């Protein structure tokens, strides 16, 4: 899942980016309201984490512009303004949740899980063969047993499971894993896929390689 973080405090932004990427999310970061508005116009995100006190364009205005375009992207507001009137103004402008600074990272992560789960409008658990993935809890199981995946392995698997039975190009996987300013090569994608194959090989599914095109998650047909 892809998150846009609009936060002008570099220290707070760095901490949030590290925590969210460790949890398996792809995170793009902007430091002012105009850049946030531009990003939301040109890209699709599963969640916007929005600081209200942004330079160039106030967070409330970013939110109002987003909702004026009929976007239903979930929005979590972060702000040092903790007055009731500020909360009401943010929620009335179209925010889904509100968190005041300072906050505990576990609480923010819990709210992110809740909002991304709500934003999908569907069940968060994907099943394919004996493989299951809970998007909200970031848990992967094979035959009901937890398996240990890195954040990027999990991100690759998420895309493959969402498009199970269909071709997923390497560039699609690169886009899903990358935040702005990051680089993930197609060679790195091959490494993640290789590791995944070993970890899910008992699930009755396989990651097929379509040379020069990409990958496809498919069920293994039983002999006979």
> What is the terminal separation in angstroms?
39 Å
Radius of gyration: 19 Å
Shape annotation = elongated
Strand arrangement in the largest pleated sheet: 2-1-3-4-5
DSSP strand content: 15-25%
- Give me the strand/helix succession: EHEHEHEHEHEEEEHEHHEE
Give a short account of the largest sheet: 5 strands, parallel
Describe what you observe in this structure.
This protein has 224 residues and is α/β, with parallel strands linked by helices. It has 8 helices and 12 strands. It has helices at residues 10-22, 33-42, 59-68, 84-92, 105-120, 151-162, 170-177, 186-199; strands spanning 2-6, 26-30, 47-51, 75-79, 97-100, 125-128, 131-134, 139-142, 145-146, 168-169, 205-210, 214-219. The strands form 3 sheets. It has a 5-stranded parallel sheet with strand order 2-1-3-4-5, with helices on both faces. The protein has a 4-stranded antiparallel sheet with strand order 6-7-8-9, covered by helices on one side. Strands 10-12-11 form a 3-stranded antiparallel sheet. Strand 6 and strand 7 (131-134) form a beta hairpin. Helix 6 (151-162) packs across helix 8 (186-199). The longest helix is centred in the middle third of the chain and has 16 residues, at 105-120. It is elongated and about 60 Å long. The chain starts with a strand and ends in a 5-residue tail after the last strand. The mean pLDDT is 86.
